[in-house]
Design goal:
The chain contains one helix and six strands; from the N terminus they run βαβββββ. A six-stranded antiparallel sheet has the order 1-6-5-4-3-2, with helices on one face. The longest helix is centred in the first third of the chain and has 9 residues.
Amino acid sequence: MAEPAFCLPVDVAEELLYEEESEFDGSTLTAVGRETIRDARWESHRILVFRKDGELYGFHFVKGLTEMQDSDPFSYEEVVKVYPAYGVEKTITEYGLRD
């Protein structure tokens, strides 16, 4: 994997998990997407993508799949590594039955 673009304090990254915006280093960070990378038995491995100064960045986190899973989103790290991200626009067709 590429080198991180920068690191976020854990509290700023956690705020982005639950709020649409957070502040860091004089910039507004705006969450724009969340994607599931893979699901394991007890945890879901995900990425959160956000916009900072017109550029897209993202970070990995985990989420427990049951209320009994005491998962730390960032595996008890002191900082969260942030990587450049990208978006792909897709056209999706949904199907259904006619009445």
